Amino acid sequence: MPQTLSVRAYEAGLGGDHALVGLGPEDAAEQCITLPARRREAFATDDPNLLSLRLEVQDDAVGSVAEGRWCASIFLAQAATGDSGLSAPQLYQAAACYAAEHDLMWHVWGLVGGIGRSPEKARQVADPDVRRRIIPLIRQARDLDEEAANHIAAAMRRA
Description:
Blueprint: H1 7-13, H2 25-33, H3 37-43, H4 48-81, H5 88-111, H6 119-126, H7 128-157
């Protein structure tokens, strides 16, 4: 299964004290919402450099997922029209999942004030309410990623 945007990686880059990456963001999402006090305090800063760094991590992760899933959706839709021997309906369904995941990343950007970087957007990333609203979007993206992978696997089994 492809690696998805991980709440663990998101948390680690946004003030965590160790790097966590990989699949399975559900448990980490709960940890982000209920961070121990010392980790919540890591977000309580007015240091513009630290806030900017946190925004960069979030922006890079969201941008990578958005671009990758958009490209995957185009590739799979084109593959479905070809003579690959793979199940076209399954490929179209996977493409739709990836396109929807791409759209979710735009919603994440919207929660911090849009695409791009600025001091105002960096302060939004530090807002616990904004982070709480981002977590369900990451979960939805993870679910779509898993669904897309299942469609691709089904398309390959039918080949």
